[in-house]
Amino acid sequence: MKLMALLDELEQFVENSRRLPLTDKIIMDGDQLLDYLDQIRDALPEEIEEAKRIYRDRERVITDAKYEADHMVEETRMQMNRMVENHEVSKQAQSIAEEIIEQARKVAREIRQGANEYADDVLRELEEIMDRAGINLEQSIRAVKSGREELRKTKGA
Question: Which residues contact 78 (CB under 8 A, 6 or more apart)?
Fold first, then answer.
């Protein structure tokens, strides 16, 4: 900061200059005052250019930081969207899996019910055939009846 040093020197020059008695007037060496002014004029463009460079650097840093912050926000937003989508996909998969399991249970119940009805029909027909034929197989009929009764119990369960 050459300019500040020159201004400090000029200030010292003014403060150290002689004063006219009984006035606020100062006696100065004009050539030296003009020399200070010339040096200040020479230093001003350098100082102004330095200030402009610092300002440009500051603006560049701010722009870069804003770009980086925007980029980070966008990356975070995209990651959150992916997480939400993954969560939604998981929820949908869970829902579909639950539907498939429920359908499988329903089909299994229907198959069991159909098998029980079929077995009951076969045993009933067998019982009727044996009764009509007059086959004296009381023990066989009791076994058939017992089997049908067992099937009826499982129907209710």
Answer: none
In a domain, 141, yes or no: no
Enclosing domain of residue 105: 2-110
Residue 64 counted as domain residue: yes
Closest CA to 126 of 116, 146, 141, 112: 141
26-46 pLDDT per residue, tens = 888 889 889 988 888 887 877
d(CA 79, CA 61): 27
* CA 32 from centroid of its chain's CA atoms: 69
Residues ≥6 apart with Cβ < 8 Å to 44: 3
Which pLDDT score is estimated for 151? 84
* Prediction pTM value: 0.38
Number of independent structural domains in the chain: 1
